[in-house]
Protein backbone atom coordinates (compact mmCIF):
# COMPACT_ATOMS: atom_id res chain seq x y z
CA UNK A 1 0.00 0.00 0.00
CA UNK A 2 1.36 3.40 -0.93
CA UNK A 3 1.87 5.82 1.91
CA UNK A 4 -0.30 8.93 1.77
CA UNK A 5 1.77 12.09 1.59
CA UNK A 6 0.78 15.42 3.19
CA UNK A 7 0.95 17.84 0.36
CA UNK A 8 0.89 21.59 0.06
CA UNK A 9 3.47 24.16 0.90
CA UNK A 10 5.89 21.88 2.78
CA UNK A 11 7.06 19.35 0.20
CA UNK A 12 10.02 16.98 0.24
CA UNK A 13 11.87 19.31 -2.14
CA UNK A 14 11.29 22.27 0.18
CA UNK A 15 12.70 20.38 3.16
CA UNK A 16 15.72 19.32 1.11
CA UNK A 17 16.20 22.94 0.08
CA UNK A 18 16.18 24.21 3.67
CA UNK A 19 18.50 21.48 4.96
CA UNK A 20 20.92 22.07 2.07
CA UNK A 21 21.04 25.81 2.72
CA UNK A 22 21.56 25.22 6.43
CA UNK A 23 24.48 22.89 5.65
CA UNK A 24 26.01 25.41 3.21
CA UNK A 25 25.80 28.21 5.79
CA UNK A 26 27.42 26.07 8.47
CA UNK A 27 30.14 25.13 5.97
CA UNK A 28 30.70 28.83 5.12
CA UNK A 29 31.02 29.66 8.82
CA UNK A 30 33.51 26.85 9.52
CA UNK A 31 35.60 27.83 6.46
CA UNK A 32 35.64 31.45 7.64
CA UNK A 33 36.76 30.37 11.12
CA UNK A 34 39.53 28.25 9.61
CA UNK A 35 40.74 31.11 7.36
CA UNK A 36 40.71 33.58 10.27
CA UNK A 37 42.62 31.14 12.46
CA UNK A 38 45.14 30.51 9.69
CA UNK A 39 45.83 34.06 8.50
CA UNK A 40 44.78 36.41 11.30
CA UNK A 41 46.35 34.48 14.21
CA UNK A 42 43.88 35.11 17.06
CA UNK A 43 45.43 35.79 20.47
CA UNK A 44 43.44 32.96 22.03
CA UNK A 45 42.69 29.91 19.84
CA UNK A 46 38.98 29.17 19.42
CA UNK A 47 37.92 25.61 20.20
CA UNK A 48 36.04 23.54 17.65
CA UNK A 49 33.01 23.52 19.97
CA UNK A 50 32.85 27.33 19.92
CA UNK A 51 33.36 27.36 16.14
CA UNK A 52 30.41 24.99 15.77
CA UNK A 53 28.26 27.18 18.04
CA UNK A 54 29.25 30.19 15.95
CA UNK A 55 28.37 28.30 12.77
CA UNK A 56 24.91 27.27 14.01
CA UNK A 57 24.20 30.81 15.25
CA UNK A 58 25.41 32.32 11.97
CA UNK A 59 23.29 29.92 9.89
CA UNK A 60 20.14 30.50 11.98
CA UNK A 61 20.59 34.28 11.81
CA UNK A 62 21.12 34.25 8.02
CA UNK A 63 18.03 32.08 7.46
CA UNK A 64 15.93 34.41 9.63
CA UNK A 65 17.13 37.42 7.62
CA UNK A 66 16.52 35.51 4.36
CA UNK A 67 12.94 34.88 5.45
CA UNK A 68 12.50 38.60 6.15
CA UNK A 69 13.47 39.61 2.59
CA UNK A 70 11.32 36.95 0.89
CA UNK A 71 13.98 34.44 -0.13
CA UNK A 72 11.82 31.60 1.20
CA UNK A 73 8.71 32.71 -0.65
CA UNK A 74 7.74 29.78 -2.85
CA UNK A 75 6.11 32.13 -5.36
CA UNK A 76 9.13 34.43 -5.61
CA UNK A 77 9.72 35.48 -9.21
CA UNK A 78 13.27 36.76 -9.49
CA UNK A 79 16.08 36.30 -11.98
CA UNK A 80 19.67 35.61 -10.99
CA UNK A 81 20.38 39.31 -10.42
CA UNK A 82 17.31 39.65 -8.21
CA UNK A 83 18.29 36.58 -6.18
CA UNK A 84 21.86 37.87 -5.78
CA UNK A 85 20.54 41.26 -4.64
CA UNK A 86 18.36 39.65 -1.97
CA UNK A 87 21.17 37.38 -0.82
CA UNK A 88 23.49 40.38 -0.37
CA UNK A 89 20.80 42.31 1.55
CA UNK A 90 20.26 39.21 3.70
CA UNK A 91 23.91 39.01 4.68
CA UNK A 92 24.09 42.75 5.40
CA UNK A 93 21.08 42.42 7.70
CA UNK A 94 22.66 39.37 9.28
CA UNK A 95 25.90 41.25 10.04
CA UNK A 96 23.91 44.09 11.64
CA UNK A 97 21.81 41.63 13.66
CA UNK A 98 24.85 39.75 14.96
CA UNK A 99 27.02 42.81 15.65
CA UNK A 100 24.43 45.10 17.23
CA UNK A 101 22.22 42.63 19.08
CA UNK A 102 23.46 39.07 19.47
CA UNK A 103 27.11 39.81 20.31
CA UNK A 104 26.10 42.43 22.85
CA UNK A 105 24.32 39.66 24.74
CA UNK A 106 26.70 36.75 24.01
CA UNK A 107 30.14 38.40 23.89
CA UNK A 108 31.91 35.09 24.58
CA UNK A 109 31.13 33.85 21.05
CA UNK A 110 34.27 35.50 19.57
CA UNK A 111 32.58 36.58 16.33
CA UNK A 112 34.84 39.27 14.89
CA UNK A 113 34.62 41.55 11.87
CA UNK A 114 37.05 39.45 9.79
CA UNK A 115 35.04 36.30 10.45
CA UNK A 116 31.74 37.98 9.54
CA UNK A 117 33.16 39.47 6.35
CA UNK A 118 34.71 36.22 5.12
CA UNK A 119 31.69 34.11 6.13
CA UNK A 120 29.39 36.56 4.33
CA UNK A 121 31.44 36.47 1.11
CA UNK A 122 31.57 32.65 1.10
CA UNK A 123 27.84 32.46 1.91
CA UNK A 124 26.99 34.83 -0.95
CA UNK A 125 28.83 32.61 -3.42
CA UNK A 126 27.42 29.35 -2.06
CA UNK A 127 23.80 30.50 -1.68
CA UNK A 128 23.63 32.27 -5.05
CA UNK A 129 25.15 29.27 -6.84
CA UNK A 130 22.96 26.76 -5.05
CA UNK A 131 19.77 28.75 -5.71
CA UNK A 132 20.65 29.06 -9.39
CA UNK A 133 21.10 25.29 -9.66
CA UNK A 134 17.99 24.54 -7.60
CA UNK A 135 15.60 26.88 -9.40
CA UNK A 136 16.89 26.87 -12.94
CA UNK A 137 17.50 23.11 -13.09
CA UNK A 138 14.00 22.59 -11.64
CA UNK A 139 15.14 20.03 -9.09
CA UNK A 140 11.57 19.95 -7.71
CA UNK A 141 10.65 17.62 -10.58
CA UNK A 142 12.18 14.82 -8.51
CA UNK A 143 9.27 14.82 -6.07
CA UNK A 144 6.39 16.47 -7.92
CA UNK A 145 3.15 14.69 -7.31
CA UNK A 146 0.84 13.73 -10.19
CA UNK A 147 -2.63 15.27 -9.87
CA UNK A 148 -5.84 14.27 -11.68
CA UNK A 149 -8.68 16.80 -11.54
CA UNK A 150 -12.10 15.15 -11.47
CA UNK A 151 -14.12 17.76 -13.33
CA UNK A 152 -13.64 19.98 -16.36
CA UNK A 153 -16.23 22.71 -15.84
CA UNK A 154 -16.28 26.14 -14.24
CA UNK A 155 -14.91 25.05 -10.86
CA UNK A 156 -12.08 23.04 -12.40
CA UNK A 157 -11.17 25.92 -14.71
CA UNK A 158 -10.22 28.00 -11.66
CA UNK A 159 -7.22 25.71 -11.16
CA UNK A 160 -6.24 26.22 -14.78
CA UNK A 161 -6.56 30.02 -14.57
CA UNK A 162 -4.87 30.49 -11.21
CA UNK A 163 -1.99 28.07 -11.69
CA UNK A 164 -0.64 28.77 -15.17
CA UNK A 165 2.92 29.68 -14.18
CA UNK A 166 5.59 27.10 -13.38
CA UNK A 167 6.20 28.74 -10.02
CA UNK A 168 2.56 28.03 -9.12
CA UNK A 169 3.06 24.31 -9.83
CA UNK A 170 6.39 23.69 -8.14
CA UNK A 171 5.05 20.76 -6.12
CA UNK A 172 2.71 19.07 -8.60
CA UNK A 173 1.89 18.28 -12.24
CA UNK A 174 -1.66 18.29 -13.58
CA UNK A 175 -2.05 15.01 -15.48
CA UNK A 176 -5.37 16.18 -16.88
CA UNK A 177 -9.00 17.17 -16.30
CA UNK A 178 -11.65 14.46 -16.47
CA UNK A 179 -15.11 15.70 -17.60
CA UNK A 180 -17.94 14.75 -15.24
CA UNK A 181 -21.65 14.74 -16.04
CA UNK A 182 -23.17 18.10 -15.14
CA UNK A 183 -20.01 20.12 -15.81
CA UNK A 184 -20.53 23.47 -17.53
CA UNK A 185 -18.41 24.32 -20.54
CA UNK A 186 -15.48 26.42 -19.28
CA UNK A 187 -13.13 26.29 -22.27
CA UNK A 188 -10.39 23.99 -20.95
CA UNK A 189 -8.10 23.04 -23.83
CA UNK A 190 -8.86 19.66 -25.39
CA UNK A 191 -5.28 18.42 -24.99
CA UNK A 192 -5.64 18.80 -21.21
CA UNK A 193 -8.81 16.71 -21.05
CA UNK A 194 -8.61 13.05 -19.98
CA UNK A 195 -11.95 11.57 -21.11
CA UNK A 196 -12.60 8.04 -19.83
CA UNK A 197 -15.47 6.30 -18.08
CA UNK A 198 -14.76 7.58 -14.55
CA UNK A 199 -17.80 5.77 -13.14
CA UNK A 200 -16.34 2.32 -13.93
CA UNK A 201 -12.63 2.88 -14.61
CA UNK A 202 -11.49 5.61 -12.20
CA UNK A 203 -9.56 3.37 -9.82
CA UNK A 204 -7.84 1.46 -12.64
CA UNK A 205 -6.91 4.74 -14.40
CA UNK A 206 -5.44 6.17 -11.20
CA UNK A 207 -3.28 3.09 -10.60
CA UNK A 208 -2.11 2.74 -14.21
CA UNK A 209 -1.13 6.43 -14.48
CA UNK A 210 0.53 6.61 -11.05
CA UNK A 211 -1.79 9.36 -9.77
CA UNK A 212 -0.88 10.67 -6.31
CA UNK A 213 -3.78 13.03 -5.74
CA UNK A 214 -7.41 13.35 -6.92
CA UNK A 215 -8.97 16.80 -6.82
CA UNK A 216 -12.79 16.82 -6.73
CA UNK A 217 -13.74 19.83 -8.85
CA UNK A 218 -16.95 18.92 -10.69
CA UNK A 219 -19.71 21.50 -10.99
CA UNK A 220 -22.48 19.10 -9.93
CA UNK A 221 -21.56 16.63 -7.18
CA UNK A 222 -24.90 15.17 -6.17
CA UNK A 223 -25.07 11.53 -7.33
CA UNK A 224 -22.26 12.20 -9.82
CA UNK A 225 -19.19 10.89 -7.94
CA UNK A 226 -18.06 7.23 -8.06
CA UNK A 227 -17.93 6.85 -4.28
CA UNK A 228 -16.68 3.23 -4.29
CA UNK A 229 -13.76 4.10 -6.55
CA UNK A 230 -12.87 7.14 -4.45
CA UNK A 231 -12.95 4.95 -1.34
CA UNK A 232 -10.60 2.39 -2.95
CA UNK A 233 -8.26 5.18 -4.00
CA UNK A 234 -8.24 6.57 -0.47
CA UNK A 235 -7.42 3.19 1.06
CA UNK A 236 -4.51 2.80 -1.37
CA UNK A 237 -2.91 5.97 -0.01
CA UNK A 238 -4.05 8.25 -2.86
CA UNK A 239 -4.98 11.67 -1.53
CA UNK A 240 -8.57 12.69 -2.35
CA UNK A 241 -9.13 16.39 -1.82
CA UNK A 242 -11.83 18.99 -2.44
CA UNK A 243 -10.99 21.86 -4.81
CA UNK A 244 -11.41 24.45 -2.04
CA UNK A 245 -8.79 22.71 0.10
CA UNK A 246 -6.50 22.19 -2.90
CA UNK A 247 -6.53 25.90 -3.79
CA UNK A 248 -6.10 26.81 -0.12
CA UNK A 249 -2.99 24.70 0.40
CA UNK A 250 -1.37 25.58 -2.92
CA UNK A 251 -2.05 29.32 -3.06
CA UNK A 252 -2.41 30.40 0.58
CA UNK A 253 -5.91 31.79 -0.04
CA UNK A 254 -9.52 30.68 0.25
CA UNK A 255 -11.57 30.89 -2.94
CA UNK A 256 -14.59 32.84 -1.67
CA UNK A 257 -16.43 32.36 -4.95
CA UNK A 258 -16.42 28.58 -4.37
CA UNK A 259 -17.37 28.56 -0.70
CA UNK A 260 -20.61 26.91 0.34
CA UNK A 261 -22.07 27.10 3.90
CA UNK A 262 -21.38 23.48 4.88
CA UNK A 263 -17.69 23.93 4.09
CA UNK A 264 -17.52 26.92 6.45
CA UNK A 265 -19.32 25.01 9.21
CA UNK A 266 -17.19 21.87 9.03
CA UNK A 267 -13.83 23.37 8.00
CA UNK A 268 -11.04 23.04 10.54
CA UNK A 269 -9.32 26.14 11.89
CA UNK A 270 -11.95 28.85 11.63
CA UNK A 271 -12.59 28.68 15.38
CA UNK A 272 -8.91 29.09 16.33
CA UNK A 273 -9.12 32.87 16.46
CA UNK A 274 -10.97 32.55 19.79
CA UNK A 275 -7.65 31.80 21.47
CA UNK A 276 -6.37 35.22 20.49
CA UNK A 277 -9.23 37.22 22.05
CA UNK A 278 -7.27 37.34 25.31
CA UNK A 279 -5.32 39.78 27.40
CA UNK A 280 -2.12 37.97 26.38
CA UNK A 281 -2.61 38.94 22.74
CA UNK A 282 -3.07 42.58 23.74
CA UNK A 283 -0.03 42.55 26.03
CA UNK A 284 2.21 41.08 23.32
CA UNK A 285 1.07 43.74 20.87
CA UNK A 286 1.69 46.49 23.44
CA UNK A 287 5.21 45.23 24.17
CA UNK A 288 6.02 45.15 20.44
CA UNK A 289 4.53 48.64 19.95
CA UNK A 290 6.61 50.12 22.78
CA UNK A 291 9.78 48.49 21.45
CA UNK A 292 9.11 49.73 17.92
CA UNK A 293 8.37 53.24 19.15
CA UNK A 294 11.66 53.20 21.05
CA UNK A 295 13.50 52.36 17.83
CA UNK A 296 11.58 54.52 15.34
CA UNK A 297 11.02 57.75 17.30
CA UNK A 298 13.78 59.59 15.35
CA UNK A 299 12.07 58.60 12.06
CA UNK A 300 8.72 59.78 13.45
CA UNK A 301 10.14 63.19 14.43
CA UNK A 302 11.94 63.67 11.09
CA UNK A 303 8.82 62.65 9.14
CA UNK A 304 6.65 65.10 11.08
CA UNK A 305 9.16 67.90 10.41
CA UNK A 306 9.36 67.12 6.66
CA UNK A 307 5.56 67.09 6.26
CA UNK A 308 5.33 70.41 8.07
CA UNK A 309 8.04 71.98 5.90
CA UNK A 310 6.57 70.65 2.63
CA UNK A 311 3.06 72.08 2.94
CA UNK A 312 1.99 72.12 6.56
CA UNK A 313 3.34 75.58 7.37
CA UNK A 314 1.76 77.05 4.22
CA UNK A 315 -1.68 75.48 4.47
CA UNK A 316 -1.93 74.98 8.22
CA UNK A 317 -2.95 71.37 7.60
CA UNK A 318 -2.25 68.82 10.30
CA UNK A 319 0.82 66.58 10.14
CA UNK A 320 -1.40 63.65 11.10
CA UNK A 321 -4.53 62.29 9.45
CA UNK A 322 -7.42 60.64 11.30
CA UNK A 323 -9.78 58.49 9.28
CA UNK A 324 -12.73 56.35 10.30
CA UNK A 325 -12.19 52.62 9.71
CA UNK A 326 -14.08 49.41 10.55
CA UNK A 327 -12.44 47.30 13.22
CA UNK A 328 -13.02 44.19 15.30
CA UNK A 329 -16.66 42.99 15.30
CA UNK A 330 -17.50 45.75 12.82
CA UNK A 331 -16.96 48.53 15.37
CA UNK A 332 -15.68 51.81 13.91
CA UNK A 333 -12.51 53.51 15.15
CA UNK A 334 -10.26 56.33 14.01
CA UNK A 335 -6.99 55.20 12.45
CA UNK A 336 -4.01 57.54 12.81
CA UNK A 337 -1.53 58.11 9.97
CA UNK A 338 1.00 60.64 8.79
CA UNK A 339 -0.71 62.81 6.19
CA UNK A 340 0.52 61.74 2.75
CA UNK A 341 -2.11 63.52 0.63
CA UNK A 342 -2.97 67.14 -0.06
CA UNK A 343 -5.30 68.82 2.48
CA UNK A 344 -8.21 68.90 -0.02
CA UNK A 345 -7.72 65.29 -1.18
CA UNK A 346 -11.32 64.29 -0.42
CA UNK A 347 -13.13 67.49 -1.24
CA UNK A 348 -15.28 65.47 -3.67
CA UNK A 349 -15.92 62.62 -1.24
CA UNK A 350 -14.32 59.28 -0.44
CA UNK A 351 -12.70 57.34 -3.26
CA UNK A 352 -10.19 54.52 -3.64
CA UNK A 353 -6.52 55.45 -3.61
CA UNK A 354 -4.55 54.47 -6.72
CA UNK A 355 -0.84 53.66 -7.24
CA UNK A 356 -0.19 56.98 -9.05
CA UNK A 357 -2.76 59.04 -7.17
CA UNK A 358 -2.41 62.74 -8.05
CA UNK A 359 -3.63 63.65 -4.55
CA UNK A 360 -0.46 62.27 -2.94
CA UNK A 361 2.24 64.80 -2.02
CA UNK A 362 5.87 64.44 -3.09
CA UNK A 363 7.05 63.30 0.32
CA UNK A 364 3.84 61.29 0.67
CA UNK A 365 4.87 58.96 -2.16
CA UNK A 366 7.93 57.88 -0.20
CA UNK A 367 5.99 57.63 3.05
CA UNK A 368 3.40 55.37 1.44
CA UNK A 369 5.91 53.27 -0.51
CA UNK A 370 7.92 52.38 2.60
CA UNK A 371 4.89 52.44 4.95
CA UNK A 372 6.34 55.19 7.12
CA UNK A 373 2.96 56.92 7.04
CA UNK A 374 1.59 54.05 9.14
CA UNK A 375 3.97 54.43 12.09
CA UNK A 376 1.43 56.52 14.10
CA UNK A 377 -0.83 53.47 14.07
CA UNK A 378 1.36 52.14 16.86
CA UNK A 379 -0.87 54.34 19.04
CA UNK A 380 -3.91 52.45 17.72
CA UNK A 381 -2.16 49.26 18.85
CA UNK A 382 -1.57 50.74 22.32
CA UNK A 383 -5.26 51.70 22.53
CA UNK A 384 -6.21 48.09 21.68
CA UNK A 385 -7.98 49.05 18.44
CA UNK A 386 -5.48 47.19 16.21
CA UNK A 387 -2.90 44.45 16.41
CA UNK A 388 0.38 44.07 14.59
CA UNK A 389 -0.97 41.32 12.33
CA UNK A 390 -4.44 41.10 10.83
CA UNK A 391 -6.55 42.22 7.87
CA UNK A 392 -6.05 45.88 6.98
CA UNK A 393 -9.04 47.96 8.21
CA UNK A 394 -11.23 49.47 5.51
CA UNK A 395 -13.38 52.58 5.42
CA UNK A 396 -17.11 52.23 6.34
CA UNK A 397 -18.21 53.65 2.97
CA UNK A 398 -16.30 50.92 1.14
CA UNK A 399 -17.23 48.17 3.62
CA UNK A 400 -20.97 48.78 3.08
CA UNK A 401 -20.43 48.54 -0.66
CA UNK A 402 -18.17 45.48 -0.52
CA UNK A 403 -20.41 43.49 1.85
CA UNK A 404 -23.19 43.71 -0.73
CA UNK A 405 -21.08 42.48 -3.64
CA UNK A 406 -18.55 40.08 -2.05
CA UNK A 407 -19.75 36.99 -0.13
CA UNK A 408 -18.34 36.50 3.37
CA UNK A 409 -16.63 39.91 3.33
CA UNK A 410 -17.82 40.69 6.87
CA UNK A 411 -15.93 37.63 8.19
CA UNK A 412 -12.66 39.57 8.02
CA UNK A 413 -13.92 41.57 11.02
CA UNK A 414 -13.78 38.46 13.22
CA UNK A 415 -10.22 39.40 14.22
CA UNK A 416 -8.61 42.72 15.04
CA UNK A 417 -7.29 44.66 12.05
CA UNK A 418 -3.50 44.82 11.78
CA UNK A 419 -0.59 46.99 10.73
CA UNK A 420 0.40 44.22 8.36
CA UNK A 421 -1.11 40.95 7.24
CA UNK A 422 -1.08 37.86 5.05
CA UNK A 423 -2.80 39.71 2.19
CA UNK A 424 -0.10 42.40 2.22
CA UNK A 425 2.55 39.71 1.79
CA UNK A 426 0.74 37.85 -0.96
CA UNK A 427 -1.02 40.52 -3.01
CA UNK A 428 0.31 43.68 -4.70
CA UNK A 429 -1.15 47.15 -4.34
CA UNK A 430 -4.93 47.03 -4.71
CA UNK A 431 -7.43 49.86 -5.04
CA UNK A 432 -10.63 48.41 -6.53
CA UNK A 433 -13.52 46.20 -5.47
CA UNK A 434 -11.94 43.35 -7.47
CA UNK A 435 -8.70 43.79 -5.52
CA UNK A 436 -10.69 43.77 -2.28
CA UNK A 437 -12.16 40.37 -3.23
CA UNK A 438 -8.71 38.98 -3.99
CA UNK A 439 -7.36 40.26 -0.68
CA UNK A 440 -10.35 38.77 1.14
CA UNK A 441 -9.23 35.32 -0.04
CA UNK A 442 -5.93 35.81 1.78
CA UNK A 443 -7.58 37.40 4.83
CA UNK A 444 -9.88 34.38 5.26
CA UNK A 445 -6.89 32.06 4.93
CA UNK A 446 -5.17 34.01 7.71
CA UNK A 447 -8.25 33.89 9.94
CA UNK A 448 -8.56 30.14 9.41
CA UNK A 449 -4.89 29.37 10.07
CA UNK A 450 -4.06 32.09 12.57
CA UNK A 451 -1.40 31.11 15.09
CA UNK A 452 1.47 32.72 16.96
CA UNK A 453 3.95 31.10 14.56
CA UNK A 454 2.12 32.47 11.49
CA UNK A 455 1.96 35.93 13.10
CA UNK A 456 5.72 35.87 13.76
CA UNK A 457 6.42 34.76 10.19
CA UNK A 458 4.29 37.61 8.81
CA UNK A 459 6.04 40.12 11.08
CA UNK A 460 9.47 38.94 9.93
CA UNK A 461 8.45 39.05 6.28
CA UNK A 462 7.01 42.54 6.65
CA UNK A 463 10.63 43.68 6.29
CA UNK A 464 10.32 42.61 2.63
CA UNK A 465 7.21 44.80 2.21
CA UNK A 466 8.97 47.84 3.64
CA UNK A 467 12.28 47.21 1.90
CA UNK A 468 10.89 46.61 -1.59
CA UNK A 469 7.82 48.83 -1.31
CA UNK A 470 5.33 46.00 -1.91
CA UNK A 471 1.51 46.00 -1.50
CA UNK A 472 -0.51 47.92 1.07
TrEMBL record:
Q: Gene3D superfamilies recorded for this chain? A: NAD(P)-binding Rossmann-like Domain
Residue ranges annotated for the Bacterial sugar transferase domain, each copy included: 284-467
Name the Gene Ontology molecular function terms of this record: phosphotransferase activity, for other substituted phosphate groups
- UniProt entry keywords in alphabetical sequence: Membrane, Transferase, Transmembrane, Transmembrane helix
Where are the membrane-spanning stretches? 16-40, 52-72, 84-106, 112-134, 284-309
Which terms in the GO cellular component ontology are assigned? membrane
As for membrane topology, the entry says: Multi-pass membrane protein
Pfam families linked to this entry: Bac_transf
UniProt keyword Transmembrane, yes or no? yes
**Alphabetized InterPro entries for the sequence:** Bact_transf, EPS_sugar_tfrase, Sugar_tfrase_EpsB_2
Q: Where in the cell is it found?
A: Membrane
The record, for NCBIfam families, names:
EPS_sugtrans, EpsB_2
What PANTHER family does UniProt report for this protein, alphabetically? COLANIC BIOSYNTHESIS UDP-GLUCOSE LIPID CARRIER TRANSFERASE (PTHR30576), UNDECAPRENYL-PHOSPHATE N-ACETYLGALACTOSAMINYL 1-PHOSPHATE TRANSFERASE-RELATED (PTHR30576:SF0)
| Sequence similarity | Belongs to the bacterial sugar transferase family.
Protein name, entry field:
Sugar transferase
